[in-house]
Amino acid sequence: MPSDKPTSSSDKVNDLDKDISIISSFIHIYCQGKHADKENLCPECQDLLDYAYQRRRLCPLDPKPACKNCPIHCYKPEYREKIRQVMRYSGKRFYKLALFHK
Known about the structure:
Elements: H1 9-34, H2 43-57, H3 77-100
Helix pairs in contact: 1-2, 1-3
C-alpha cells in the first residue's frame, strides 16, 4: 500500500542504491552461470549493467514500478530481451541464495 507521506531525497537515493544492488546481483548470477569468467562480468553483461544503471538513474516515476509493469518501457527492445533473460535465469537462484543466507 503506497504511503501518503512525501518521499525525501535520501529515500530516493536509498531506493536507487537498493535497485542497482539487486540488478547488479542478478546480472552477476547470470554471468557467472552462463559465461566462463567467474570473477568478472563479461563485456556484454557489463554493458547491460551500465545500461540498467543509467535507465534506473533516469527513471522519472516515483515510486518506480517493476519494469514489467511500467507504462514507459524505457529500455531499448534488445536490452529488454536481455534483462528478461537475466531475470528469468537469476530470479530463482537469487531468492534461493537469500533464503540460504538467512
